[in-house]
Amino acid sequence: QATRHLNARRYLFVQLTGASLTNTRHPLAFPNAGDKNDYLFAFHGGLSTPLRQALHDYARALLRSHSIDEPLTWAPPGHCVTGLTLPGREPDDIDLAAVDQLINRQRLTASAAAVMLGVTTEHVRYAISQLHRPGKHNGRNTPPASRRLRERATALLTAEFFRREYQDAGKNLRTIEAETGIHRKLLAKHAKAHGIELTDLRTLNKPVPLDPDWLREQTEVHQRSATDIAAEVELTPETVRRNLIRFNIARRPQGFAGMPSHGRTHPDLPQEIRRAVEGPPHGWLRLRRFQQIIGYPSINVASRAIKVSAATLTAQIAKLEADIGKSLLNRGRPRHPMTPTEDGHALLAMLGHPRAAELLDRYAKPLRGWRPDDPRRDRTTQRQ
């Protein structure tokens, strides 16, 4: 949190002054390149629209508190440069839809997107700031959501609340849970703390029944695993497995035969992708690996970044090239970073197609912790 607060101060300083933070004597200056990359990628690049608006509102309030009647950001009037031929393109002369597709959908770095759009990296970063980026939605079981729920429960679930809703109105815990959105175990905990005696505690641990027809459809038609189903209905995988046995529902086959991608054909996809995924197992995973390593200077650097051994990556790329029948990578060597071949560039473009991207996310999600804006990729792209 301390680093995030420091980066927020840096952001406000730049907005208010227009100055850079390259002067090492400034208390907010970047002490090293890693700190600057953390600011550019982790903070500035990840600002949601609501958070950016909140920071701007704070900055405007600060100006007003000092009796400064000026806009947050200022640009000279356009007539000041009338008749002059200035280098570069106009800031607004960029396709925001294309930027959104490359950055948010295909997860390219700013510099990689700049190369594809024929603009500068700063131009792309400016465009990113113009995109609407919704705030992060935390799932109900994440720490921030749990904390907010506990805070709301503490404020709402007073002794007076339980006397009014539970004792006088005669509502049970299930009804109160439906009305407040606070689960029954937390309701029971607060009731006990206030000395309220509950009569329906025995129902708290009663298992939620599963509809056998729905469970059969999810398992046999959609080929979902017990773990996947359990996550949706908020039960343990073992509970789902017991219900499969109870309702005599055949479980999904073990191993490769049970994978959702097994045996599926995709006539709407390009031949190169079909060759990679319709025959041998783990084709989608190899395509994901190929997409992830592009931009790194070598297999070794990529392996450390995505936490897969270099030997595994080498074997996966070799297998992918053999399946497709084309060379996809120019291997890295001293002073010559690894780059995709023309066929490799073409395959990357195919993987960016909405249908291919959808299937790629379904069958081969990126590893947890992998960052598409990894500065090691960014610096490599700049060298290229």
UniProtKB/TrEMBL annotation:
Q: Which domain of life is it from?
A: Bacteria
Q: Which GO terms describe its molecular function?
A: DNA-binding transcription factor activity
Sorted alphabetically, which PROSITE patterns does this protein's record hold?
Answer: HTH_LYSR (PS50931)
InterPro entries per the UniProt record, alphabetical = LysR_HTH_N (IPR000847), WH-like_DNA-bd_sf (IPR036388), WH_DNA-bd_sf (IPR036390)
Q: Name one Pfam family in it.
A: HTH_1
HTH lysR-type domain location is 298-341
The protein's name in its UniProt record? LysR family transcriptional regulator
Q: Which organism is it from?
A: Micromonospora globbae
